[in-house]
Design goal:
This protein has 51 residues and is mainly alpha-helical. It has 2 helices and no strands. The two termini are 20 Å apart.
């Protein structure tokens, strides 16, 4: 997802380690992006992530 997620974030998403310094809303967003990244859904579900 290089057009939507910066490279340094993609590296973190590729690992299965959730950063410990995230706020609650950031953890939620991370979880959603991690799911999309692992399932290789890409931009297909991006509109559903907008709160």
């Amino acid at each position: 997802m290089p057009a939507t997620v910066p490279a340094e974030i993609s590296k973190v998403l590729a690992s299965d380690i959730v950063p410990s310094d995230l706020l609650a809303n950031e953890k939620n967003t991370f979880g959603q992006l991690h799911f999309l990244y692992k399932k290789d859904l890409g931009l297909l579900a991006l509109p559903f992530l907008v709160n």
